[in-house]
Automatic annotation (TrEMBL):
Pfam families for this protein: CoA_binding_3, Polysacc_synt_2
Transmembrane segment boundaries: 49-70, 82-100, 121-139
Entry protein name: UDP-N-acetylglucosamine 4,6-dehydratase
Keywords in alphabetical order: Lyase, Membrane, Transmembrane, Transmembrane helix
Stretch forming the signal peptide: none
First-level EC class: lyase
Matching InterPro entries: NAD(P)-bd_dom_sf, Polysac_CapD-like, Polysaccharide_Synthase-Rel
Species, as recorded: hydrothermal vent metagenome
Chain ranges of the Polysaccharide biosynthesis protein CapD-like domain: 327-608
Ribosomal protein found in the keyword field: no
UniProt GO molecular function: lyase activity
EC assignment: 4.2.1.135
Family membership: Belongs to the polysaccharide synthase family.
Length: 656
């Protein structure tokens, strides 16, 4: 019965509050035009109203002090004295109020410092009034106690009225029903106290602070403004369970970045939200706090201008190449493939086919493209590049004119562990798509290669080199086969930069394999634009090389990323060297010794002369590779791969 009674009372209170809120809202709605007009009028003449109020307070305090002095039976002769001296008091009071700017302070957010200013103004006004009375009126018959009584009453009326308005406003705010969350404040210092005051004075935050946590053991068991210090930072998970905490507010602005990450990680493990109170200096400097890292532009990290469409001729060339064509992109869900689809869609092809093996990335890309290009005909297809039957049907049914082949395994260390998969996907997959393109009378085939294909030190690079040879060997009258070679794209899925950003967000360390390792980098949109331009320029059989600027030291890239995140390398975030991984080179090369370089009309694109490779021999060995793959013969596969690409340094550490 007791439980039922409590529930009933709670329900009635809740319903009452809801009814009050609805009635209040209705009244405010009906009188809103009047309220707005009145508010505008009051705010327009705010200073005048305040000065009138202060004048009235001065007069009221003065007459009240006389009545108190004479126990509410003031003799008639003192009425004359009151009227004669009242103007002097008002002038002194208003002058003192002006000196301390009492009329400019906020009444809704009055604080103790405002009260101190009011006290100073009252004391100054009283001193001025006493001096004025001595020289103008004299003190022979004037009751001395009136000076003290008037000052006390003036302070009470003036300060009390301001605090009354403030607390009535806060009470009204608290009276409104709010959705509340229970919070802990991490840090029982001055910032924590400020945070507590802010939460209490701002009901709109919807928070109720249940306690503090602090790593100072001497603070445990004490309280701040009635709120207990419950334990240390490490106690957060236990307190979350015990008290039902919804949120942890970190109020330690002077703390190191590593400590802030430690606290947020403890809160994350306890499955509660975190908010961070930054220091005033960091707010002014737009500095980074905890896990709210500044968004770093990948283009900034390149240290050079990123290519954008500047020439009308480039735009016309790509419009002619892709507009009103049926285009298929393999590996459409990857970093390069998805950007290819975005840029192709701008030129309004007749059909854009997204060929991708992974459903999630394909789904996300389809949603994005349909939103940005609602009129574009898009066909998303889940499929493997080794699925000849399905791919052939797609090519013939949609009369594909142009293929961009971006599907490939690219992770060097992973392909060192899985060389059979690398050969199956990168070589046999490319050969399968290329042969089907010939059968389906596709006009052009653009293959995405890599600088790792030059003197490859890993399986992935060797497979890409063999794929280049396949493309050149199949080029003929029916299909124009073109390869485009470039280095790393900055910010691609699974590459170093996203890993560095994740490591920085976790407080470090950032891992770099070697202090001298360098790589060529391009922005993804820049690389794709040049790939499309090179493909449009190609007449068949070419390998194009993109201008990637100067090679970048990975250590410099890591340090730059840390600084651009608002932190200091070695101080906030450590950098550790882990050693070169299997198949990894210190630096990449752009072309083979036997390949000549020819300029093109686009200064960002050069063309490589073929070095006269025997393509018939390549295709025979690829056929043998396929047999080794079917038998899962790793040793035979690697040996044959090295025969096709004798310059490749592969075969070490593959079974590790």
């Amino acid at each position: 019965m007791l439980r039922y009674s409590k529930f009933k009372v709670k329900s009635i209170n809740t319903i009452s509050l809801q009814l009050i809120k609805k009635m209040t809202t209705k009244v405010l709605y009906n009188y809103m035009p009047f309220n707005r007009a009145l508010r505008r009028f009051v705010m327009q003449y705010r200073t005048s109203f305040i000065l009138l109020f202060q004048l009235a307070v001065a007069a009221l305090s003065y007459i009240a002090s006389f009545y108190l002095r004479f126990e509410f039976t003031m003799p008639p002769e003192y009425f004359r004295m009151f009227y004669e001296t009242l103007p002097l008091l008002v002038v002194c009071r208003m002058a003192a109020y002006y000196v301390y700017k009492i009329h400019t302070g906020s009444w809704l957010f009055v604080s103790m410092s405002d009260l101190m200013d009011t006290l100073k103004a009252v004391l100054l006004g009283s001193v001025l009034f006493v001096i004025t009375m001595v020289f103008v009126y004299g003190l022979d018959e004037f009751p001395r106690s009136v000076f003290i009584l008037e000052a006390v009453l003036n302070l009470m009326f003036l300060g009390g009225s301001r605090f009354t308005i403030r607390y009535s406003y806060e009470f009204k705010q608290r009276a409104l029903p709010k959705v509340r969350k229970y919070a802990l404040i991490a840090g029982a210092g001055s910032a924590g106290v400020l945070m507590l005051k802010e939460v209490r004075s701002n009901p709109g935050m919807g928070l109720q602070v249940l306690g503090f946590v602090d790593d100072n053991p001497y603070k445990k068991g004490t309280n701040i403004q009635g709120i207990p210090i419950l334990g240390s930072i490490e106690d957060i998970p236990d307190l979350v369970k015990r008290l039902g905490i919804d949120e942890v507010i970190i109020a330690i602005p002077s703390s190191s970045y590593k400590n802030l990450v430690r606290i947020t990680e403890i809160a994350r493990r306890a499955r509660v939200e975190t908010r961070i109170l930054p220091s005033l200096a960091r707010l002014i400097q737009d500095d980074v706090v905890a896990n709210k890292l500044r968004d770093v532009s990948y283009d900034d990290l390149l240290g050079r201008d990123v290519l954008k469409f500047r020439r009308e001729s480039d735009y016309r060339l790509l419009k002619e190449e892709t507009g009103e064509k049926s285009i298929l992109v393999t590996g459409a869900g990857g970093s390069i493939g998805s950007e290819l689809c975005r840029q192709i869609a701008h030129f309004r092809p007749r059909m854009l086919i997204l060929y991708e093996r992974h459903e999630n990335s394909l789904y996300d890309l389809e949603i994005e493209l349909r939103k940005k290009f609602p009129e574009q005909h898009i066909l998303p297809v889940i499929g493997d590049i080794l699925d000849s039957e399905k791919l052939s049907a797609i090519l013939r049914a949609n009369k594909v004119d142009l293929i961009y082949h971006a599907a490939a395994y690219k992770h060097v260390p992973m392909m060192e562990r899985e060389p059979l998969e690398a050969v199956r996907n990168n070589i046999l997959g490319t050969l399968n798509v290329a042969r089907l393109a010939v059968k389906a009378n596709v006009n052009k085939f653009v293959f995405i290669s890599t600088d790792k294909a030059v003197n490859p030190a890993n399986v992935m690079g060797a497979t890409k080199r063999v794929s280049e040879l396949v493309i050149q060997g199949l080029n003929g009258d029916k299909v124009k086969f073109i390869a485009v070679r470039f280095g790393n794209v900055i910010g691609s899925n699974g590459s170093a930069i996203p890993l560095f950003k994740k490591q920085i967000a976790e407080g470090g360390p950032v891992t770099v394999t070697h202090p001298d390792i360098t790589r060529y980098f391009m922005a993804i949109p820049e690389a794709v634009q040049l790939v499309m331009t090179a493909g449009a320029m190609g007449r068949g059989g070419e390998i194009f090389l993109l201008d990637m600027g100067k090679p970048v030291k990975i250590i410099d890239l890591a340090e730059d990323l840390i600084r651009r995140s608002g932190l200091q390398p070695g101080k906030d975030i450590d950098i550790v060297f882990t050693g070169l991984r299997p198949g990894e080179k210190l630096y990449e090369e752009l072309y083979w010794e036997g390949e000549g370089i020819l300029t093109t009309e686009n200064r960002k694109i050069t063309m490589l002369k073929p070095n006269g490779h025997g393509y018939d021999d390549v295709f025979q060995k690829i056929k043998l590779l396929e047999e080794y793959i079917q038998k899962s013969d790793m040793e035979g596969t690697l040996r044959l791969l090295k025969e096709i690409v004798p310059e490749a340094s592969i075969g070490n550490g593959l079974n590790a």
